[in-house]
Amino acid sequence: MKTKPEIQDEVQLWKTIFTTILLRDNAIKELINSDPGFTHVGYEQALQMLDETLNDFSTVRSSLVEARRGLATHRSTKPTNYITACCS
Asked: Is the N or the C terminus of the chain less surrounded, counting Cβ atoms within 10 Å?
């Protein structure tokens, strides 16, 4: 049975695409290096920021998914009469 990919799987996919396909493409390398303001330090910082952004997205998105699952579980359970349970 095929499982639905989790957000962490999707983030890892995009990280892999960037590092193994896009960043190894000679045309992209030439384009990046042709910028007169290009520096290797800036390039490394940009890659680090991309990684951090994808990790942050994963964390936030995972929290949203878990919150939705929790709400769905809560809604599917029998409602509790909190006043009766508390005061009787």
From this structure: N
